[in-house]
């Protein structure tokens, strides 16, 4: 049977963000493709535009014409009201097939490889969702190496302290835990608004955009990351004004500033600037400055004793309590004054990166944000994030966010 080719244009002359090429190709064939997957056996030729993969991985006309240009086009595909819905529907159909079937028996050996490539691509746009489930069920959770290579996903050289604390703490944000021997990662572990806003600040410091547009842009790109109601509303305004918040949102996103400047004075000034666009209450600004100062001092080699003394004398936080003293009566608290000192104490009491995050989460409060704060300081003090934790975080992160964190690290952390 000849390959289905509903288009006759030169593939090199076709804009790669023109998703209409997929709509046209799927117009008559999609119901048939869905029927075949539901039956457990692919029989006709439609793989290129039903399960698209990155351009350049195949050499045929269809592989080129229907190749996804880059991560941004993959995101547009997923967000498209028709194409994204169909991709989810037919992917779900794969997962609803009876146990015991292999990808090869359903798709054929060659198309099984193409589907693995497609699932790898879209999992890197929307991690740990339905596409990861297909990789787990049919491919032993092994991603397509050529797709990963083409995406150029970094394995190291990343600003990941806050991200790791956020992902580890995400499971316990609404299910507080009061001990340190909890699983670091589970199937439910994910990045939240702490990570997204950290990336937005890093992107601002890289000069991609001004601060307010950068924050708003990332909220638009990741609207379901778990933002506070007031911040979510602020992000929709064309001319947003600060809302006098003293929530810990200013502290959770500030870690890039602790790395980006050569003096403590510059660090404090930019930390205040990063907070004031939303959290212009004195406590909101103080929380951001305290965390940024801790990171700055830690990366400059100051001792924990000196860091404690500086923070206590400058910001009037009581850092002479212990986690064991705090833990019994501590409750969920999203204010800077009620969570930043405790997160810093978790770092001060830690022996390595992992123990800093474990201690912060174990207090039973706003676990993802407190993990992010403690993790961001611990990363600077202990010289990075351990490989096993780093790998788990990278797997759960979309490639566009990783790219920003990698560029930030190369510019500000590798000097």
Helix content: 55-70%
CATH superfamily annotation of the largest domain: ADP-ribosylation/Crystallin J1
CATH class membership of the largest domain: Mainly Alpha
Question: If you consult CATH, what is the topology of the largest domain?
Answer: ADP-ribosylglycohydrolase fold
Largest sheet: none
Total domain modules: 2
Give the name of the CATH architecture of the largest domain: Orthogonal Bundle
Shape label: elongated
Indicate the low-confidence ranges by residue numbers. Answer: 1-16
Oligomer: single chain
Q: How many runs of DSSP E, i.e. beta strands? A: 0
The string of secondary-structure elements, in order, is HHHHHHHHHHHHHHHHHHHHHHHH
Number of separate helices? 24
β-strand percent reads under 5%
CA gyration radius, whole angstroms = 23 Å
Mean pLDDT: 93
The end-to-end span amounts to: 58 Å
Structural class: mainly alpha
Description:
This protein is an all-alpha fold and 415 residues long. It has two domains: 11-151, Protein of unknown function DUF1810 (Serine Threonine Protein Phosphatase 5, Tetratricopeptide repeat); 161-413, ADP-ribosylation/Crystallin J1 (ADP-ribosylglycohydrolase fold, Orthogonal Bundle), CATH 1.10.4080.10. It contains 24 helices and no strands. The protein has helices at residues 20-39, 47-50, 61-65, 71-79, 83-95, 103-107, 109-125, 130-139, 145-151, 161-170, 193-205, 211-221, 229-234, 249-252, 255-260, 264-276, 282-299, 304-315, 323-326, 336-349, 353-362, 367-382, 387-395, 399-413. The longest helix is centred in the first third of the chain and has 20 residues, at 20-39.
